[in-house]
Each structure stands twice: as structure tokens, then as C-alpha cells.
Design goal:
Layout: H1 2-23, H2 27-41, H3 45-57, H4 61-70, H5 81-95, H6 99-118, H7 126-132, H8 135-148, H9 152-162, H10 170-190, E1 199-203, E2 210-213, H11 217-231, H12 237-250
Length: about 270
């Protein structure tokens, strides 16, 4: 029995090292630890998921999909295998720029997560619930995919709900701002632009044409910003400015660039459609 427990602890240590090297993008060390995991644990669901993640980091998405399909659909531990399966497939299709298919997999992952949480017995401890429930992580990934499929309004709802947990993630606030801008762009194309609050009136003509600005615009902007914070998120340009301000404030000092994972930044607004 003690020998078996030592073997289990050794397998877990190799898995933890593999995850650590994967997060640090140390692919050579990760490959070495995956061999140790497969030697000790065999072709279990956890080991195949780790190897699939390794191939994902190497951009070998076809092999990563094959490994996921060959993994067992059940696991002796309390991990939510169907949810992780659909989530990983959604992320891989996102990297392959198959956004609609990726969004479909993420919606299935949310359904599988909901079923797994409902199947938990009453009175389950917090560690068990945490290992099974991945709702907000899935919601974040689903919102990113909806944004790339040209559904900024649905993506805005998903990401603002995820922001209640990931409040200090600058990438998330950037994505929410993109969603708000995309919604405003759709409304502007569907209806004629409304009168701007910035301009009070235009007088004169030709070379003597002048634009009179509204002197209360700055005070009105501050009031609208405070109302938005108190009322809740709304997909407006003013709220997008607040989100971008949050994103800038959360950036580490002296950082020139930030890696945007799992989504790449949208360089052209036309890519949102």
C-alpha cells in the first residue's frame, strides 16, 4: 500500500511539473516531464490531456485533437472531463481561426459544466466544487469566440459577467471595450447617427463657418460615467472608455506590450464582423 501511495504521489509531482513548464512555455523540459508522466501513469485521461496541451503549445493542432479524442471520457479523480474536453477543442479551433466551430464547442462545454455542477451531492466541500465548476473560465473563452464570430452584444454579456471574477485582468477589460465599440458600430450602421452632445450648434458659412461646442459636455461626461458605474455595464462608447481606462491602469508599470491570451488583439474593426 505504501508503495502504491508513493507511486501516486510521484505521478502527481510529474503532472504538476508538466503544467508548470507548460505555463512557462519551457517546451523542452515539458516534453521530458510528459515522458515521465506517461511512464508512471500510462495513457490516463490526465496524461493525455497534458500531452495534448503540449502539442497545442507547439501549434500542432491536428495531433492535439487526436490525443483528446483518444483520451478516456471518465477519470478516477473528480475532474470534469467532458467540460475540459469541449473547452480544449474550442480553444484549438480558435487558434485554427474556425471561430464558429469553436463557439459551438464552448457552448457545449458550458452545458456539460452545468450538468456536472448539478450532479454534485448536496453539502460538497468547496475544493470539490472548485475542481468541477469552471463556469467563469468557460464564459471568458466563450465571450472571446463570440466577439470573433461577429456577435459583440452576446460577447459583451459573457465578458461582463466574467469580469465580476477577473476584475484585475487588463486583457478582459480590453475585450469588453471592443465589444461595446462593436455594438455601437452595429447600431450606427442600422440607424442614422444621433445629434452629438459635444456640438451645440454651427454658425456661419464658408470661411466664416464656426462650430460652437457645448460647455457642459465635460461635466455631462463625468455624470454619465458615474451613472454607468452605478447602473451596471452597458455597451456604449462611454463605457468602452471606462473599460480602456481600467485596462491601462491595470497594466504593470513599464510594460511595453502584453500577451493577449487566449485571443489575439483585433487590429482592424472590420474583423469583428
Amino acid at each position: 500500500k505504501q508503495w502504491y501511495q508513493r507511486r501516486v504521489r510521484g505521478a502527481r509531482m510529474h503532472q504538476y511539473r508538466t503544467r508548470l513548464y507548460a505555463q512557462q512555455r519551457c517546451l523542452k523540459a515539458c516534453k521530458r516531464e510528459i515522458k515521465n508522466v506517461l511512464t508512471v501513469s500510462g495513457t490516463t485521461a490526465s496524461s493525455l490531456f497534458l500531452k495534448s496541451e503540449f502539442e497545442y503549445l507547439r501549434s500542432n493542432f491536428k495531433k492535439s485533437c487526436k490525443l483528446l479524442n483518444s483520451s478516456p471520457k471518465t477519470c478516477p479523480s473528480k475532474e470534469n472531463i467532458p467540460t475540459l474536453y469541449y473547452n480544449n477543442f474550442g480553444c484549438m479551433h480558435f487558434k485554427m481561426k474556425k471561430y464558429n466551430l469553436g463557439a459551438l464547442y464552448l457552448s457545449q462545454a458550458l452545458e456539460a459544466n452545468c450538468k456536472a455542477v448539478k450532479a454534485l451531492p448536496r453539502g460538497s466541500n468547496s475544493s470539490t466544487v472548485y475542481s468541477v465548476n469552471h463556469y467563469y473560465q468557460l464564459l471568458y473563452n466563450y465571450g472571446i469566440l463570440l466577439l470573433h464570430t461577429g456577435q459583440p452584444n452576446a460577447a459583451f454579456n459573457c465578458l461582463t459577467e466574467a469580469a465580476s471574477v477577473y476584475t484585475r485582468n487588463p486583457r478582459l477589460w480590453l475585450r469588453i471595450a471592443e465589444c461595446a465599440i462593436g455594438v455601437c458600430r452595429e447600431h450606427r450602421e442600422a440607424s442614422p447617427p444621433a445629434h452629438s452632445n459635444t456640438v451645440k450648434c454651427i454658425v456661419g458659412s464658408g470661411a466664416y463657418r464656426k462650430t460652437i461646442l457645448n460647455t457642459s459636455f465635460q461635466q455631462q461626461t463625468k455624470r454619465i460615467s458615474a451613472d454607468l458605474v452605478n447602473a451596471g455595464p452597458t455597451p456604449t462608447l462611454t463605457y468602452a472608455v471606462l473599460c480602456l481606462s481600467n485596462s491601462l491602469d491595470l497594466l504593470p508599470p513599464g510594460s511595453e506590450s502584453v500577451k493577449c491570451l487566449p485571443a489575439a488583439p483585433v487590429k482592424d474593426p472590420s474583423e469583428l464582423r
